[in-house]
Amino acid sequence: MEQRLLQQIKQRYGVVGNCEQLNHALDVCLQVAHTDLSVLIIGESGVGKEILPRIIHDNSPRKRERYLAINCGSIPEGTIDSELFGHEKGAYTGAIDEGEGYFGIANKGTLFLDEVGELPLATQARLLRVLETGEYIRVGGTEVLKTDVRIVAATNVNMVKAVSEGKFRQDLYYRLNSIPVRMPALRERGNDILSLFRLFALQMVEKYKMPRLDLTEDAKRLLLKYKWPGNVRQLKNLTEQISLLSEERTITAETLRRFIPEDEETMAVASYSTKPSGESHSYEQERRLLFNFLVELQNSVQRLNGEVQELQKQITALGGQPVQMSHPVLSLPSSIPQIETPAYEMADSEEIKTESNPVVESLNVGDNEMELLKKALRRCGGNRKNAAKELGISDRTLYRRLKQLNLE
Ligand SMILES: Nc1ncnc2c1ncn2[C@@H]1O[C@H](COP(=O)(O)OP(=O)(O)OP(=O)(O)O)[C@@H](O)[C@H]1O
Asked: Residues of CATH 3.40.50.300 domain(s) within the chain?
């Protein structure tokens, strides 16, 4: 591909970097854009996969038609078929009208299926059919409908492994993988890391009118050698944090170390993520969640006890007889008279409360859940897949909770 054209595309879409693997990925996308072939973009979370389907669509004969980007991982399993393929009126409780579905809406255009590896097997079967024949049936319907949609899919899971484990249909994988495009991890991009740092630092200058950040040589070396588990997304977050929180404007390796996890910790995160689920770490997370739940339960019981006592007082004041509780349902279970902070909570928590002030910490399950999600995301450099593993929950649950808590 002509260098000039490649540079034009990068400028138009704000893509920074010039390493060979990135150029190759862009090159392949531009070469196949004018065809109807399915493209499968693979790459770790946060490498910048999202821009490629847009580039493909805008450079294809479909560019004046609809472009829809769907995150398959964030749609609940119960509604995904209806969202993708539409539904008939009354197909399920709450389906008061018929719905068209993305395959109908995007007819003649391009559909970007992000996190395609998260699709349930039943949906995979429907998807295969529409890819092979252009035909689909709405949920609850019988009529065979036609559509002409170009599919670009993306995934950060190892699809070969997903196929071998029976989580992803082999025939669908081959069908989607007509043109594979690999987005390189940030740690493979050499000096692009520094260019991206400059880009994000400059964006902060424009956004908040702050003086620009500069890097010392040792800081540059650290950025180049760091493993970046959260890839470009992590670098962007890190640059924004440093821009806002650091008083120094010339950033040294020492300052950087305050913001990025130590190399050892990155390795630790990587090794957690390769553990099969159900090992001691997720067990620890379960204990953590259980602990929060028990604390909340204890709080509720105490609150209810207070309310009952208040009611008893009012009944007595009105001249009535206090109600005798036949079952001590509102007394605290003796097994959890006092819930202590578990040792693992103490170990890595900056929010440890002193003994003289043990109740400053919010005991609200919602607050604690939000903190846990944030902590896991921070620890995994924004990598949602690894964060979900750390939390011992599915990706889908994490996406849904992030959405519900406005933490996206
Ligand atoms: N080469 C690049 N130049 C400028 N910004 C980039 C580049 N690559 C990624 N980004 C930015 O990094 C962030 C993460 O990118 P994106 O959401 O596309 O990652 P992803 O690979 O789709 O991640 P996930 O698999 O988690 O969805 C975005 O804010 C994006 O704009």
From this structure: 3-184
Measure 17 CA to ligand 1 centroid, in angstroms.
12
Give nearest CA residue, ligand 1 atom 30. 48
Q: CB atoms < 10 A from the CB of 56, how many? A: 28
Distance 46 CA to ligand 1 centre (A): 5
Architecture of domain 191-260: Orthogonal Bundle (1.10)
CA-proximal residue: ligand 1, atom 23 (nearest): 46
What pLDDT sits at residue 366?
63
Task: For residue 192, give the ligand 1 atom closest to its CA.
Answer: 1
For residues 113 and 86, the answer to whether their CB atoms sit within 8 Å is no
How many whole angstroms from 298 Cα to the centroid of ligand 1? 43
Q: What is the complex's ipTM, to 2 decimals?
A: 0.98
Q: What is the pLDDT of residue 146?
A: 97
Residue span(s) of the chain under CATH 1.10.10 come to: 275-307+339-346+361-408
pTM of the predicted structure, to 2 decimals: 0.69
Mean pLDDT over the full length of the chain: 80
* 275-307+339-346+361-408 CATH fold: Arc Repressor Mutant, subunit A (1.10.10)
Is residue 344 scored above 50 in pLDDT?
A: no
47 CB less than 6 Å from ligand 1? yes
Pocket test for ligand 1, best of 9, 228, 233 (most atoms within 8 A of CB): 233
- The finding on whether 189 has its CB within 6 A of some atom of ligand 1 is no
35-77: pLDDT as tens digits: 999 999 999 999 999 999 999 999 999 999 999 999 999 999 8
Of 150, 82, 164, 79, the C-alpha closest to 117 is 164
Nearest residue (by CA) to ligand 1, atom 25, is 45
What is the CATH number that goes with domain 3-184? 3.40.50.300
From-to residues of CATH 1.10.8.60 in the chain: 191-260
Rounded average pLDDT over 376-402: 77
For 102-106, the CB contacts below 8 A with 24+ separation are: 102/68, 102/70, 103/130, 103/136, 103/147, 103/149, 104/145, 104/147, 105/66, 105/68, 106/65, 106/66, 106/67, 106/68, 106/147, 106/149
